[in-house]
Design brief:
18 strands, globular, 9-stranded antiparallel β-sheet, 3-stranded mixed β-sheet, 3 domains, single chain
Amino acid sequence: MPKLSRSWWHGFFISATIAGAGILTSISLRDFRTEALPPENRPIQSGIPGYATSSACRTCHVENYTSWHGSFHRTMTQVATPTSLPDDMSKLDLTFNGREYKGERRSDKFFIRVRAEDGSYRERQQVVLLTGSHTLQIPWLETGHGRTLQQLPFAYIVAERMWAPVTQTFLIPPNLKEYYSLGAWNGACMDCHVTQGQSRFVEGNRWDSQVAEFGVACEACHSEGREHTERNRNPIRRFKLHLTTKTDPTIKNPARLKAPDSALDCGQCHSVWAFNNMSDKIDFNRHGSAFRPGAHDLAQRFVVQPQPADHTEEKDFIRRTEPDFFRSRFWDDGMVRVTGREFNGVQASPCFRGGEFSCISCHEMHLDSPGQTSLEKWARTAQLKPKLDSDAACLQCHRTMATNISGHTHHVADSSGSRCYNCHMPRTTFGLLHAMRSHQVSSPTVVESINYGRPNACNLCHLNQTLAWTAQKLEAWYHEPMPQLSSDDRNIAAAVQWIVKGDAGQRALIAWGMGWESAQKTAGRDWIYPYLIYSMSDPYAAVRFDAWKSLQTLPGFSDFSFTYTAADDLISEVTAYAYEKWLREIRDPNATYQPETVLDADGHFRQDIFQRLRSERDDKPIILAE
């Protein structure tokens, strides 16, 4: 056998190396193309013209990027990953409406298998997106219809680290078993939970949804950034703008806009809005919002205020086609009653009509005063400006009141009754299983409670007092005319009436309000126990949840366990036990109860009055459309 020369081996080695490198390169290119291809089973981030995404802002605006990144706006919608989903997603094992739902993890992907009542399993569905991050998280599943999503019928309540049916995390009638229809995220949720979303309806149950960026990112508030980033690569241009203090026309800064336009920047999402016409709706669906920060209106849409005489034809159309539209969102006088729609309240406030007041009068979208508060606290306190979680928010304008707060409030200066927010922005809106502050700055009246059913600020704190008591105080202090009052309004505490015979929205507000420390200190705690325990069996799950959480704020019940989503018989068993626990172990035998609380000397309900109030309960089905 002839001996091969060194040159032959050298040539063979080079050829093999080249061939091997070629194979590896082919594999790498194949894998790169696979990774580069966008997923086909969910909405995608796409190169929408003009948009550069938040990553392009990071280089120059490091501090602003950092505070935005720590905010909950960023995480309003996230791609489903091990870090974005709840920790126990792979261990999910839940039953709802006759079906079993089981979680499964494969590498960094999560799937749900559904077992129907007949015992058959459906094909597993991947969990692809997540809406919400700090209060309530809702996972969305692939459907096999392109980028169309289906909602997992369970939501994760973050503070409780528990799963609950979605229908029991909103204030909706107990007989409503399904809340989100197929494609609901594509057709509705993405309107506000992403940056420049395009629903892109195709046909049937098929959507081809795309977004500029998941979550509410820089360009949602500052407008498209591509031109801004490209032109500011020129350092001379940047220095010139800084030296001349001129506004950069390639970007919008809400802080430099007129107050109404600045507030509309937030109002594009935080409002009840409707389309001007079908043509605008189709345009919005295909191309996304035509509104850009700095504009004077929402372009294809308008902010729906029930009382003003604007857009009469459009609002009449809404009333004809959606009879419960206004009742599901507003009190009868037009004040908004659901959270997430704060701009409606701001726009209806006298402060706003002065032309100088906007959302950023109190809130800041970036932590501009580092060191005064932590980024985490700032995010969890609604991004309030430092020191503006107190009277300072109002006194920055109403300066003359600062020298004599008590003279205006008729309460001790350091008491909750002297806090501007508590009187002028009481918790009369509801959402995410919480009562939240109204953003329509107003003054408390008894008329708002009699005519519209809205709890007034005085009785939300003085839970043990009647409307007559409040009317007398308001007449003596502020010369408000005394209204006509019923016998119940003169003799029964307003909060007792609301939590027993109010509609589900009123009952939820009071169930939450009875856990408010300031109200407990003002009205006393002893008499509150039986009302919260009674409300834990309310037909509306949201009321049950808030009653339970408020009960946990009372002595003796801090660790009280309660499954608010359980079957009726189990709920009855637990509430009976809770009542006996209070009556036998916790109740002070020497306690006395005001007659206005409808409790007798032993702490029992006065059955004649209580049962009458219960028979008068407003049982009309209600949905608060958050």
